[in-house]
Amino acid sequence: MSALLCGSCFAAGVTIGNGATITLAGSPTITTIDLDISGTLSGGAGNIDFSGNWSRGGTFTAGSSTVSIVGAGASLVNNSNTFFNFSCVTASKSITFQSAVTQTVTNSLNLNGQAAGTRIVLRSSASGTQWNVDPQATLSVQYVDVKDSNNLSAVNPTITPSFSMDSGNNQDWNFGSLSISGNQSMVVGSQSGPLTIDITFTNSNTANRNIIIDLASDSSGANEFRDTSGGAAVTSVVVAAGSTSTIFYYVDNASGSPTITASTLGYTSGTITMTVSTITFQVSAASPQIAGSNFILTITAKDQTGATVTGYAGTVNITVNYVSPATGAGVLGITSTSAFVGGIATITNQTFSDCGTLTIKATDQATPSMTGTSANIVFLPFDFTVELTGLDTDAAGSAVDKHVVSKPFTLSVTSRNAAGTACPNYKGNTLLSIDYVSPSADQSGSLAISTLGVTNWTNGIAAVTAQTYNRWGTISIKAADATDTTRTGVSPDIFFVPKDFTLTLSAIPASRNFYYTNESFTVTVTVRDFNNLAIVNYQGTISFSGEGLNLPANYTFTLSDAGVHVFNGVNGSRQAETSVFAADTGTSSVAGTSAAIDIITGTIKVISASGPVGPVLVEVNIVDSAGSVLISDDSTTFTVSLSEFIADNSASSEAAETPVQVSGGIATITVTDDSAEVVTVTPSSVPELSVETGTVTFGTVSGAGVGIQIWREVKEGQE
Asked: Which residues of 269-279 are buried (b: 16+ CB within 10 A; e: fewer)?
């Protein structure tokens, strides 16, 4: 055993051999480059300064000594050691500690590299394997660059150096603190917004490396972290050298309030508590809407309480569910959106191509269990097309379509969206009405079918094969949705015309089958529809024709005629076999012809007679142009006027006062005169016929078979 009593000793190297013992007495200072303890060294109250390597294979008893690393260059501390005071205040010093062993300092640990540019570099002998330190009392650590160090101290559980550099893998050292910031609200199964990790360096510390930050969550459900939006799952992120922050994203499949922790050796961990909500979507749009036209669709993310989840920023798919009809092939203009602002997506230009009642559903793309469905939305057609087929004359051959009143035709109505495409699912109630073109006033007309219902529609088209219209004139037919009557369509103009006219003549007097010339008769014209009924609003103009007839001028029907008008004073101007013909002046094909009639030139003829003064029978005949008696005439009546040769009013006849009716075309009258004279008999008939007078000669005396005519001289001045 030996004792070292000198006040100061200098040596290039000190080796305490195996079995040797050195005890420092008093408070000497030993300065050496290398110190190799294979035997025993008792430090006492001395100071041991070395600038090279410390190697302890034997026993070192620290006492109250101070071990200092001094001098330029690199130093190595081997094996585990227990120091009372341990110090290095040498600028730019590099110290390597044996890995996986512990350096214990029971009193004071003092490390100070003096400046940021001259930090003491502390390293492990095996990079990546920690060297241990256990400072059990006071410590002062400044301007150091530390790597691979593990602080085991219970007294100083955290070493917080000042102006120091973290080079990584330092446990229970504190170079700074981590914090996490960002929107703390998110949705189950959806990615959070970006979360930022910030490093705040303590006591002006720094790092000279990429810092790997480990991430963890205490969620009860499956969760993951991503270092990029939508990226693959990671367990850590990197704060790049030269930076103090980084971002990450979080996904959690369980609702709740999990705490996320960001941690790395050498820094105080940072945490953030997230609110993970189960989402339903409130989907809304006004009803009704117009097929193919823009409408506003609003999708709002809601949590379990009904509050808007302002942090929702996922992507939703948008689909439709048919309600009535139950199926369809309509398409939405926009089928997905991620344009959520404050938890609300407002689509201002949504469209749907078809009609019907449906709901719109929003489904989170990442978590299909998160859905929401709108209330029923009714989609109406943008407009209709109205087409008439099966008409008598189409517009290609005339100014407008023409068709007979009350005659069936086919009416086809097509429901269309705003793009002009048929809406296959439209099955709404559609009202059919009349637009009066000419006459423009209401004609009180009606369509046989005025409403199209659900059973009429097939693939967006309703075809009615038995449509009719019951009035004369030009109209168009309008279709309008019963829910929104501004949704309309109008057919081309159609001119409804009569089927024909019937011309009925007044009855010929009994027994004959002809009219006499100049004998007036009536013609009743009835304007008929397809069903042979009078067209009560006909206001067209008709013209007449017929051989040998005196006919009315053109006539325009009025509403008061109600489709029937009687024309008086028609008669024959000459003998003929003829008919009365009437035609519409605007539509010549609309016409009618009466039954055939004969016009006969008749003459009422008095057969001359003679006899004695007194009554004489006179025969009156109705003869035709050939002089033959018209034996079928049992109806003509006549009266006679008498003209006396001697104007003394002596002649008379009951036929002058009382009409006489012929029978078989012949009548006999009595003419009486008490004077011998010649009396002229002139007939006047109904109907008015041509007249052939006759005479009655009075004054003939009968006797011995000889008749003598008595003449009487009439002197001048006698009448």
From this structure: ebebebbbbbb
Q: So what's the pLDDT on residue 398?
A: 59
- Which structure tokens are listed for 611? 């006899």
Q: Which residues of 510-548 are buried (b: 16+ CB within 10 A; e: fewer)?
A: ebbebbbbbbebebebbbbbbeeebbbbbbbebbbebee
CA gap 147, 125 in Å, rounded: 11
Q: Rounded CA gap, 665 and 630, in Å? A: 5
d(CA 355, CA 484) in angstroms, rounded, equals 13
pLDDT in tens, 470-507: 999 999 999 999 999 999 999 999 999 999 999 999 99
For residue 627, give every residue at least 6 positions away whose Cβ sits within 8 Å of its Cβ, in sequence order, or none: none
- In three-state secondary structure terms, 371 is strand
The residues pairing with 464 across neighbouring beta strands, listed in sequence order, are: 411
| Residue closest to 638 by CA, chosen among 650, 620, 613, 617 | 620
Within 10 A of 168 (CB to CB), how many other CB atoms are there? Answer: 19
Q: What is the pLDDT of residues 327-379, one digit of tens each?
A: 999 999 999 999 999 999 999 999 999 999 999 999 999 888 889 999 999 99
- Kindly list the distances between the CA atom of residue 264 and the CA atoms of 218, 273, 530, 635, in Å, as whole numbers in the listed order: 17, 19, 98, 137
Beta-sheet pairing, 690-692 with 165-166:
unpaired
The vertex-101 CA angle with 100 and 103, nearest 5°, equals 135
Residue 629 DSSP symbol: B
| Distance (Å, whole) CA 668 – CA 659 | 12
Assess contact for 290 and 195: CB atoms under 8 A: no
3-state secondary structure of 182: coil
Q: Is the peptide bond before 288 cis (omega within 30 degrees of 0)?
A: yes
- Residue 566 pairs in a beta bridge with 524
Q: Cα angle at 82 between 108 and 13, to 5 degrees?
A: 100
Structure tokens at 678: 């010649």
Chain-centre distance for alpha carbon 671: 101
Tokens 């190697």 belong to which residue? 55
Q: Are 473 and 426 in contact (CB under 8 A)?
A: no
Task: Look at residues 704, 709, 694 and name the one whose alpha carbon lies nearest to residue 612.
Answer: 709
Within a 10 A sphere around the Cβ of 455, how many other Cβ atoms?
A: 8
